[in-house]
């Protein structure tokens, strides 16, 4: 058996499971909390990773239709990613490196991590008051917009686009956005880059759910010369 591809995230799993119930990309993406474009991007990336179609569209009467999981997609949902062998022997490109942020944990008024000056990220984990922590933020977990709107995301950050990096294929591009002391990588599809005029200098808002910030252990310090080895 082939282990779970590195490109699979918890959001991908939730999207497929919800799609199996809703039979609509629009409805499934809404329930998962991502845009339709982001859902389409994730599905295309999964199909590239597994080397075969995992969804298919079936048209109905009067222009209506549904999106169903294929046999491969159904197998992934029912048996889990670890039980599915890749149909394509080509190496899967690793996902964009996550944003690594370091800050200080505080409990009041709600659990959050202070990143430098001016950024307080609400999180869904707990730590000791004043404890230094490191968190990872998946570039695909960031929703970018040109204006403010109502959202369930606990974190809304203003920023400015510094760089736009076209993808190596048609699946995705990367924005480098400055938000206070942090430079964040944001995964987007090509369409919103043009629709929202996401060019260097553009002012944007980034929406991040608290659950998207995962705490990670700090890397161990390298031993100093002459220190005893165990």
Separation, N- and C-terminal Cα atoms: 36 Å
- Work out the number of β strands: 12
User: What ranges have pLDDT less than 50 throughout 5 or more consecutive residues?
Assistant: 1-6, 86-96
Q: Under CATH, the topology of the largest domain is which?
A: OB fold (Dihydrolipoamide Acetyltransferase, E2P)
Average pLDDT? 78
Strand content: 25-35%
CATH class of the largest domain: Mainly Beta
Instruction: Output the radius of gyration.
Output: 20 Å
Structure description:
This protein has 230 residues and is of the alpha+beta class. It has 2 domains: 10-83, Winged helix-like DNA-binding domain superfamily/Winged helix DNA-binding domain (Arc Repressor Mutant, subunit A, Orthogonal Bundle); 99-216, OB fold (Dihydrolipoamide Acetyltransferase, E2P), CATH 2.40.50.100. Helix content is 22%, strand content 30%. The chain has helices at 10-22, 25-32, 36-50, 71-79, 190-195; strands spanning 55-59, 65-69, 99-106, 112-115, 119-122, 132-137, 143-145, 155-165, 173-179, 182-188, 203-208, 213-216. Strands 5-4-3-6-12 form a 5-stranded antiparallel sheet, with no helix packed on it. It has a 5-stranded antiparallel sheet with strand order 7-11-8-9-10. The chain is globular. The model is unreliable at 1-6 and 86-96 (pLDDT under 50).
In brief:
The chain is of the alpha+beta class and 230 residues long. It contains five helices and twelve strands.
